[in-house]
Specification:
Elements lengths: L10 H24 L3 H24 L7 H19 L12 H8 L2 H22 L5 H29 L14 H18 L3 E8 L1 H5 L3 H18 L5 E6 L2 E7 L3 H19 L8 E7 L6 H17 L5 E3 H7 L1
Parallel strand pairs: 4-5
Antiparallel strand pairs: 1-3, 1-4, 2-3
Helix pairs in contact: 1-2, 2-3, 3-4, 3-5, 4-5, 9-10
Length: 331
């Protein structure tokens, strides 16, 4: 289909990275054990286990977003180990503190990572000043500051790049749908083409039902939206396009499609969503509102009609399709 796809690093690639990092930690643990550094050996073994556990979670999660519990544990353990090394085991693992800001900004959102890094930096500085008495004290302090500054510089440059690219980005990363900003222009072009050629055009407003969203945890909801986006990508035609309009609402443009054919497509999509996205714990359903191009319609009026039909479909219960024409006739 014509939707542009932005590809995030796959869980398969991340799994390999975790396994490689776990292997490095095992080698580090073995070398520390041979050097009679028991604290370092235990630390390396601990992180090897956490990294391996993360790789297993990624393998089991498939296309879903994996649980974050082991990532939280890994960051907490890294903070605890480095602070313990400064206060009780000098010369062991305090140098691991250099990578903590980078890991925090890789795992967590910007604000949370900033708060976590700031709190840790204060605690690390106090621990060095009060408890650390080794000859590397000034070097440890200034190298940590240098690593922190470099990390913040990379984060700043990343944020600047994101803001610069935002106007050019046409695809929503989570659902693989085109962004809402593209919808008006693309629909206007389709309406002009249909009026010029005398063909049909239908618009679907599809959304996961409220019952499904209420029963889903935030991480599960993101996973559902991602899988729903992939399902739409696989079940629409090459010249159909779909757009993320609201959090869990998708607008689908169906050129050369009459109202009856669009209703059949809506039914097929609802069935596939229920069959492929449901699990033992959660019955996933979606409802659809349908509007077909009429004389005098504009992009705004077609979207509004489809969304009104969607709202009426959801008010009648879950897993429903409602057309705007039928809605007008019933009023």
């Amino acid at each position: 289909m014509s939707t542009l796809i932005s590809i995030d690093p796959s869980n398969s690639l991340r799994t390999k990275i975790y396994l490689m990092a776990a292997g490095v930690c095992l080698v580090l643990s073995a070398g520390s054990l041979l050097s009679s550094q028991s604290f370092m050996a235990a630390t390396g073994l601990l992180f090897a286990g956490l990294l391996y556990g993360n790789s297993r979670l990624l393998q089991k999660s498939g296309e879903k977003r994996p649980p974050m519990i082991l990532s939280h544990v890994m960051v907490f353990c890294l903070m605890l180990v480095t602070l313990a090394s400064v206060t009780h085991f000098p010369g062991q693992a305090e140098h691991w503190s250099y990578i903590l800001p980078l890991i925090a900004y890789l795992i967590y959102p910007l604000r949370l990572a900033t708060a976590l890094t700031a709190g840790y930096s204060v605690a690390f500085a106090i621990a060095i000043i009060v408890f650390y008495h080794g000859p590397e004290k000034p070097q440890l302090f200034f190298i940590y500051l240098l690593s922190l500054v470099v990390t913040l510089a990379f984060v700043y440059l990343r944020e600047i790049k994101e803001k610069q690219l935002q106007p050019l980005r046409r695809t929503d990363n989570l659902t693989l749908a085109l962004t809402r900003e593209c919808l008006q222009q693309d629909l206007h072009r389709e309406i002009q083409r249909c009026e010029r050629e005398g063909t049909s055009l239908s618009v679907l407003a599809l959304s996961l039902d409220e019952k499904t969203l209420r029963q889903s945890r935030p991480d599960d909801k993101d996973g559902l939206l991602h899988r729903m986006g992939r399902l739409l990508h696989e079940n629409l035609r090459l010249f159909d396009t779909y757009y993320r309009y609201e959090s869990a609402e998708i607008i689908i443009l169906l050129p050369y499609t009459s109202s009856r054919a669009a209703a059949r497509k809506a039914y097929q999509l609802r069935q596939k969503i229920r069959e492929q996205l449901s699990s033992r714990e959660l019955d996933v359903t979606a409802s659809v509102g349908l509007a077909t191009l009429n004389v005098g319609d504009t992009p705004a009026s077609m979207i509004e009609s489809a969304r009104k039909a969607l709202g009426h479909a959801q008010s009648r219960g879950s897993n429903q399709t409602r057309t705007f024409v039928a809605l007008e006739e019933s009023q």
